[in-house]
Amino acid sequence: MAVVELKVGVHCQDCAKAIKKAIKKLEEIETYKVERELNKVTVTGNVTVEEVARALRRIGKHASDWNAEN
Questions:
Q1: pLDDT value at position 70?
Q2: How far is residue 63's CA from residue 47's CA, in Å, rounded to a whole number?
Q3: One Pfam family name from the record (predicted)?
Q4: Which of 14, 37, 53, 68 has the fewest CB atoms within 10 Å distance of its CB?
Q5: Residue 47: C-alpha distances to residues 7, 11, 30 (Å)
Q6: Could you tell me where the beta strands, DSSP code E, fall in 1-70?
Q7: What's the CA angle centered on 26, arms 23 and 30, to 5 degrees?
Q8: So what's the pLDDT on residue 29?
Q9: Helix (H/G/I), strand (E/B), else coil: 45
């Protein structure tokens, strides 16, 4: 099981809802967490950084690897 942490702009509650909806569509996820105050999305499961980032790009969100940013 992988833990994917991404930096993504979560500007409002509607952004958070859209992100959660996009993540829920991914197969083989175990858990997910959207931290609006940190602009951080954490997903655990059988997913890659690329898969989660691609799902977020589909809704117009740019995502980058959390660890590469910090």
A1: 52
A2: 15
A3: HMA
A4: 37
A5: 16, 25, 10
A6: 2-8, 29-35, 40-45, 63-65
A7: 80
A8: 95
A9: strand
> Which residue shows structure tokens 């996820």?
29
CA angle 31, 18, 66 (to 5 degrees): 55
Query: pLDDT 10s digit of each residue in the chain, 70 long?
Result: 899 999 999 999 999 999 999 999 999 999 999 999 999 999 999 999 999 999 999 999 999 999 885 5
Q: Give CA–CA dist 18/56, Å, rounded.
A: 9
Single-letter amino acid code for the residue at 63: A
CATH number of 2-69: 3.30.70.100
Instruction: Provide the β-strand partners of residue 4.
Output: 43
SS3 40: strand
